[in-house]
Design brief:
mainly alpha
Length: 159
């Protein structure tokens, strides 16, 4: 039995795609006794972490770009189209994740302040603006950030 476990671990470590194909086949056939359960559990856990990490990253970058539109007035006219495209991209990525995993909305709500602050750090490094000009607390809500029709300023008026 212990040799069989070592073979499964070895396959997982040496040929992940083959391990995945064999594990899937065993699951489909109901061959639960011969599944490498330890590594399968690890993989399932990592899927959840990966989704949360991606959602956090998209939210941070979304906040960064919303702050660029709000506060980086000297670059706004020249960079608006690119920043707006990035905002749309991050919103789409988040919405696609929320469609397949609606429970991520709670995770995003719980992590909004943290990702706003991270986005603020990135923005301030990029812009070299005075830190005191950009509030440490969000100047928009998560709902506004995710709303495809919302921008922190009206480009037709402010340009």
């Amino acid at each position: 039995m212990s040799m069989e476990i070592e073979v499964k671990k070895s396959l997982y470590e040496t040929d992940y795609q083959l391990w995945l194909a064999q594990t899937l086949k065993k699951l489909q056939l109901g061959d639960f006794e011969n599944i490498d359960l330890e590594n399968l559990i690890e993989e399932v856990e990592s899927l959840g972490r990966s989704d949360r990490h991606a959602a956090s990253s998209y939210l941070m970058r979304l906040c960064e770009h919303l702050l660029k539109l709000t506060y980086w007035k000297s670059e706004r006219e020249m960079c608006f189209r690119g920043w707006n495209l990035e905002i749309t991209n991050f919103r789409i990525q988040i919405q696609e994740q929320l469609e397949t995993s609606p429970s991520l909305k709670t995770f995003l709500q719980e992590n909004f302040l943290k990702q706003y602050k991270n986005g603020r750090k990135l923005f301030l490094k990029a812009s070299d603006l005075d830190y005191s000009l950009v509030p440490e607390q969000p100047c928009f809500t998560l709902e506004q950030a995710l709303d495809e029709d919302w921008l922190p300023w009206n480009s037709r008026i402010d340009l």
